[in-house]
Design goal:
By secondary structure, this protein is α/β, with parallel strands linked by helices. It has helices spanning 57-72, 76-87, 91-119, 128-143, 148-162, 167-178, 182-189, 197-204, 209-218, 223-233, 250-257, 280-283, 292-303, 322-333, 345-354, 402-405, 411-428, 445-457, 488-491; strands at residues 239-243, 260-261, 268-271, 287-289, 312-315, 337-342, 360-364, 381-387, 429-439, 462-465, 484-485, 497-503.
């Protein structure tokens, strides 16, 4: 975690006192009149103070998505499709807007450090609408093939619509950014790899330092592999489908959707592009969107050898229902039934929709009530999945804004909840039954520390089952066991952690 005095990325902030477009900046363009005499733009981040017809629609869509993320704490994967639909963007225009949105969100920490240097003032003092526009422009200059003159001109046009009197300031800052390529900027703003490897990697690959440190620890201190992980974290992730067993054949589904069978999961199909929500297989319940790593850890629970009865399965943290859907399809083939528990009402409804037609019973309750809720008796279930709430550091490719929202202070309440849920899951398991503990995070406190502490505190004998044989033969990089950590750079999946426990 971050220690005193360590350098951090500038973080996206909401508007507040002292946020100005250019007053006092060393590179304000005097041709723009009294730029900065008034704070620039609508303080909510979405105001339009000038003509909008000069801004091309893909860039405007990307800007609107960035503004929603930083202004409203929205999630890009939820707001961007709506923005693209409302703007009537399709094909190459939609792809360009998507690249600008997600690329800027991934790179925002490093972009902010560059903009701070180029503007001669902390980026947090730039008014939020102008700041988001500058981030968008800087990303185009440093990470796309858009010609510099076009990136600068288009961004200045955008600033004219969102930031009062800030166009000259934006022009000057972006021209300063354009004076160096991305590598030269890293050489300028980042500490050396020799003197401060974590600080260098954080700025070179746009991750907060505490996350770089957590990845490094989880990878045994290997800086080379940490670097490869950070690079992979910044690549657009592929879309994976799960062909539900008994309802869809993966090879046939791949042909149907123009995809390819997955590398590891027997149910995975890789999509090359397009909108998966439009596929008939999803509407018909034959498949669902799910990262291959999530498929592997859910299937591992079903594959683990078990003596005795095997008809009562439990998913203790089921929302939004992807793993429950796979477990439900597997249970249907084995005459088993899944009880799916979800504490949030709206997520419980998502689980119901995701598992319609499968042998799944959804309970809207807190999974920690095992033993006090008559529907969740102790020592009752044969197989239990505890897919615990976590920081989500393993899915930063898919949710790039999360890396800037999460903080080390999030860990104590999350790890306490994880221990409580895993302990409840162990209480719910019959003697001889199995529990799979899963997180989409490689942070050692959320993985090894949590599972070891919960096993120690549960009050019953617990043995670790080697999880490696429960995954497909030939998977590389699974470590020494008995737990398994998947990685984007090793396996092409989210960084899923899996521990399988057998209750004595």
């Amino acid at each position: 975690m971050t220690g005193p005095g360590e350098r951090q990325h500038p973080r996206p902030v909401r508007s507040g006192p002292g946020t100005e477009p250019g007053r006092g900046d060393r590179r304000r363009d005097p041709r723009d009149g009294r730029a900065g005499d008034r704070p620039g733009g609508d303080r909510r981040g979405g105001g339009r103070t000038g003509r909008t017809d000069v801004v091309d629609r893909p860039r405007r869509a990307a800007y609107d998505a960035l503004a929603a993320v930083h202004r409203d704490d929205a999630y890009a994967n939820l707001v961007l499709p709506v923005i693209l639909r409302d703007a009537g963007l399709h094909g190459r225009d939609a792809a360009f807007a998507t690249e600008l949105t997600y690329g800027t969100l991934r790179a925002v920490g490093t972009l902010d450090a560059i903009l701070t240097d180029a503007a001669g003032r902390d980026v947090e003092r730039i008014d939020p609408p102008v700041r988001d526009a500058l981030r968008l422009g800087a990303y185009q200059l440093l990470h796309t093939r858009v010609p510099a003159h076009a990136a600068v001109s288009a961004t200045v046009d955008l600033v004219k619509t969102v930031g009062y009197g800030a166009s000259g300031f934006a022009n000057a800052v972006l021209r300063e950014v354009a004076g160096r390529d991305a590598d030269a900027w890293i050489d300028r703003i980042a500490p050396s790899m020799t003197d401060d490897p974590v600080g260098h990697l954080a700025l070179a690959h746009s991750h907060p330092q505490w996350i770089v440190r957590a990845f490094r620890e989880a990878l045994g201190g290997d800086l080379g592999e940490t670097t490869r992980l950070l690079i992979e974290d910044n690549q657009p992730p592929p879309v994976h489908l799960c062909a539900r067993p008994g309802l869809a054949d993966p090879a046939e589904l791949a042909d149907e959707v123009g995809g390819a069978p997955g590398a590891f999961s027997p149910y995975a199909v890789y999509l090359s592009g397009g909108a998966p929500g439009d596929l008939p297989a999803l509407a018909q319940g034959r498949a669902h969107v799910q990262d291959e790593g999530s498929q592997l850890v859910a299937a591992a629970l079903a594959a683990a050898p078990l003596e005795g009865p095997d008809g009562r399965w439990l998913d203790l943290c089921a929302g939004p229902g992807g793993k429950t859907g796979l477990l439900g399809a597997l249970a249907a083939q084995r005459e088993a039934r899944v009880t799916a528990v979800e504490v949030a009402e709206h997520r419980a409804r998502l689980v119901e929709r995701a598992t319609r037609g499968l042998p799944v019973n959804v309970l809207h309750t807190d999974g920690r009530t095992v033993g006090s809720d008559p529907k969740l008796p102790e020592e009752h279930f044969d197989r239990v999945l505890v897919d615990a709430p976590c920081t989500g550091l393993g899915s930063l490719r898919r949710r790039p804004e999360s890396r800037w929202r999460r903080q080390p202070s999030d860990l104590p309440p999350l790890t306490r909840l994880q221990r409580e849920l895993l302990t409840a899951g162990l209480r719910a398991t019959r003697p001889g039954g199995l529990v799979a503990y899963v997180t989409c995070s490689p942070h050692v406190v959320e993985t090894h520390v949590t599972v070891t502490e919960a096993a120690r505190r549960c009050g019953a004998p617990v043995d670790f089952v080697d999880a490696r044989p429960l995954l497909p033969a030939g998977m590389p990089g699974l470590g020494a066991g008995p737990t398994v950590q998947l990685w984007p750079h090793r396996h092409g999946t989210d960084a899923m952690f899996l521990a399988v426990l057998r209750r004595g």
